[in-house]
Amino acid sequence: MGLRIVLLGAPGAGKGTQAQRIAAARKMPHVSTGDIFRDHLQRKTDLAREIEPYMESGSLVPDELTCAIVAQRLCEPDCRGGYVLDGFPRSLRQAETLERLLGERTEKLDVALDIQVSDHEIVERLTARRVCPECGAIYNLKYDPPRNGDTRCSKNGCTGTLMRRPDDTAETIRQRLLIYHETTEPIRMFYDERGLLRTVVSDNLTPEAVFVKFEEILCAMEAAGKA
User: Fold this and answer.
1) Predicted local distance difference test score (pLDDT) of residue 137
2) So what's the pLDDT on residue 159?
3) Which residues, including other chains, have CB under 8 Å from residue 31's CB and lie 6 or more apart?
4) Low-confidence residues in the chain, pLDDT < 70
5) Catalytic site residues?
6) Where are the alpha helices (DSSP H) in the chain?
7) Quick one: which of 55, 25, 21 has its CA closest to 37?
8) Cα torsion at 30, 34, 35, 36 (round to 10°)?
9) Using DSSP, how many helices (H) and how many strands (E) does the chain show?
10) 63: closest CA among 150, 213, 183?
11) What gap in Å lies between CA 51 and CA 58, rounded to an integer?
12) CB of 180 within 8 A of CB of 10?
């Protein structure tokens, strides 16, 4: 059985990047609520009409909607061997709901990996972020620009034109950070009290260096589990 992992951190801290790397290294699913929401928006589903106002304003999607989506996703067969949760939980209520949901299945989380980044650094990162609508690749014009300039995706076989997410403006980012500090940071204490929290301060670290630190933590946990 693989590890059940939660990625914590402010918007733009690098949760998506680290979750993708961890999931790929361990051949487990990367469960991103943000990706699920954006997929619904792109397909203009009934759910999209409910979540669109929240995403455009930088507010959190209501707990009942988010929890229902995650519960459904974690029931899928590919999650039986472990997973990386990215973007959930984002409130104490969501963390408690996840704990209860897993408890009903006689399961539990193994670790909550926390990426700490200053607010100033977050604003700089997100205003420079660009995404490819075709393949989902994420770039940063300041730290990780595409090879083909700042307008086209440089992934092999992809010719998508890069775009900035509607919620990556400085004003929206600051609003998201305010919500994070008020609503999401208490989750760190929730997991710390349960002995699950592992924190990496990443202001001066490259994504590669952050991944190395997380790998050290996860490999130590896996080794202890096999002892």
Assistant:
1) 86
2) 84
3) 70, 73, 74, 79, 83, 84, 85, 86, 88
4) 1, 150, 226-227
5) 15, 90, 129, 165, 176
6) 15-26, 33-43, 46-57, 63-74, 92-104, 119-127, 170-179, 186-193, 207-226
7) 55
8) 100
9) 9, 7
10) 183
11) 11
12) yes
User: Would you say 69 and 76 are in contact if contact means Cβ atoms under 8 Å apart?
Assistant: no
**pLDDT for 15-45, tens place per residue?**
988 999 999 999 999 998 888 788 778 888 8
pLDDT tens digits for range 98-117: 999 899 989 999 999 999 99
The single residue listed with the structure tokens 């998506």 is 16
Amino acid of residue 180:
Y
Task: Name the token pair of 14.
Answer: 């690098």
Q: Judge contact between 1 and 82, C-beta under 8 A.
A: yes
- Residue 71 has a CB neighbour count (10 Å cut-off) of 12
Which distant-in-sequence residues (6+ apart) come within 8 Å of 1 by Cβ?
Answer: 81, 82
The angle at the Cα of 93, spanning 87 to 98, to the nearest 5 degrees, equals 65
